[in-house]
Amino acid sequence: MTLIKSKGWPATRLRRLRATPQLRALVRESNFTAAQLILPCFVKEAAKKPEPISSMPGVVRHSLKSLAEEAKQAEKLGIGAILLFGIPSKKDAHGSQADEESGVVQEAVRTVKRAAPKLAVITDVCLCEYTNHGHCGILTSGKQRVLPLSPPTPTVLADAARSGKASGCGKRMPHHGPLAFGSRHPLTSYVDNDSTLKRLAAVALSHAKAGADMVAPSAMMDGQVRIIRRMLDENGYESLPILAYAAKYSSAFYGPFRGAVGSAPQFGDRAAYQMDPHNVDEALREVALDIEEGADIVMVKPGYAYLDVVRVIKERFHWPLAIYQVSGEYAMVKAAAARGWLDGDRAFKELVASARRAGADLVITYEAVSLAKQL
């Protein structure tokens, strides 16, 4: 890129092209449309009506009926896709409900495809919402380790209780004894990577059979994209794309989400499989591996706290790239707007613009409907 040497003021006046909304729009360097937005939705099995989530104002746990209405609205607004997360009625150590033919996500996919056939449906592929221990995979015995426990906020605890599963404070988990937040607890189990891969592949296939347009593995297990790609290809779904949670960080910003779906770990945390927030070179390795294994789109999560990562990934790979404005990032803006500290609508538009400016092609945000209405 060649920079033209400016003569400076008064010959150069950069404000000329800022004078009117029309001129500003004419030279705008990055834009976004509703088609570049993805709306995440929570679906609760057997729910009769939508349940508000107090830690995420404006977001609900949907019933199938309310999900159908939300999907119709998203389709009408031109939103690019909907991303489904399920909250099952039953949970167990292996997340058995995750790949049930009549499971909550599988039924949600069918519901959305009937209600809004032109809306793309993406499904989250993970086990944390389905396991009674809250981790993203299968636990297996191993070398004893010690992990710190930290307390959830009261609001997250309340949301977790409403979602149908308490967060585990004071609960007794099999083989682990009583848990006390703020203490250090010896663990005799860990998330087994390769056993989990088989479950993730089965879940992805069940979503494909239900009619999903794309699957999005988020468990951060090594090899998850490769094994899912292989499973889909071997069963006639070679054209079904994969959106990989490639650079998913172990972040404090997930708190409201975990309360909403009751997926907070019952012991320890997810730092042993999600990424260290201090690292960016590691993100490049994760993305390179996922692309090699068959990812069609890669993701950075959280989004706005990691725009530097977005930029280096885009510049290195030039691959379709999404970011996820996660629950904590969303809730912060909502909380400030509710107190009159900032203009919420402007703030959300500015944040999406920042993601696009950094190099993101797609933005997953709970504010998608409101943003699309303003475009």
Structure, explained:
About 9% of the residues have low confidence. This protein is of the alpha/beta class and 375 residues long. The radius of gyration is 21 Å and the shape is globular. A hairpin with a 3-residue loop joins strand 7 and strand 8. The chain has a single domain, classed as TIM Barrel. Helix 3 runs parallel beside helix 5 and helix 8 crosses helix 9. Strands 1, 2, 3, 4, 5, 10, 11, 12, 13 and 14 form a ten-stranded mixed β-sheet that branches. The chain has a two-stranded antiparallel ribbon with strand order 6-9. A two-stranded antiparallel sheet has the order 7-8.
Based on the model shown, name its key terms.
single chain, about 375 residues, alpha/beta, TIM Barrel, ten-stranded mixed beta sheet, two-stranded antiparallel sheet, 14 strands, about 20% strand
